[in-house]
Structure prediction request, 97 residues.
Amino acid sequence: MAFVPMQIEAQTASAIDNSGITAASSEKQEAATANVLLSRLYEINSMDKSDLTTSDKKELRKEVRSIKSTLKEAGGGIYLSIGAIILILLLLIIILR
Prediction:
């Protein structure tokens, strides 16, 4: 019975190491993808759009919207509205009194 916990501990440690490696590589891949998308946005913004037809401009707008939505999804941050911040502050004031 003394050997069972050691084997379980060794398995979880290796599982943690493997997941850490995959998480780090996926973060690097996401960062590289984000850099490519940002460079495309900068390229579109620096273009001279006066020579383009309306359909080309429409396609560029769609591309910009899709890139921005992809970047927002990849960001994964927590966004709080002003009302939520005020509500949290009021609750903290009430609780801490």
Q: What stands out?
A: The radius of gyration is 24 Å. Helices lie at 3-46, 54-75, 82-96. Residues 3-96 form one domain. DSSP finds three helices and no strands in the chain.
